[in-house]
Input
Amino acid sequence: MKPTRWLKTGPLLIAKAAAMAAVLLMVLGVGTAYAYWSTIGIGSGSASSGTMQTVLVDAFVSGDSPATSLVPGGSADVILRASNPNGFPVRAYSVAVNGPATADAAHPQCTTTGVTFNPPASPLSPAVVVPPNSSVLITLPGAATMSAASQSACQGSVFRLPVTMAVRK
Output
């Protein structure tokens, strides 16, 4: 074996070296691309949730007035005032009965009112949105009825209808 065999020079050796360098660069480039696309990052984040304050429902306040009056054997509109103390709007979703109807304090003899609340279907239609930090009147057409069994002492009374209103953000 000749010791100079490995030390040959010329175009063939340059071509082999260039091919080997190209293969080496390609392998390194693919490895770098793989590392770029397969990188995994680890970190953490945080968020907090706010608490929605209770939306208040009141009956009449000064200046509110019903469009219809309740008479024995008939029905009338129910008007609610929804007050939203939150910094974001809420949508009134449903209204449900939350106790028996009672007459105002000026009519103490009205013990059998015959008044019932007929809640509307959920969700309320048309949709009622209560803007942030404000209040709106909600009219529920024909939601109160009065039977013929109501006492005469109930004439001229304003009835309290306890309701619960569900709202959604």
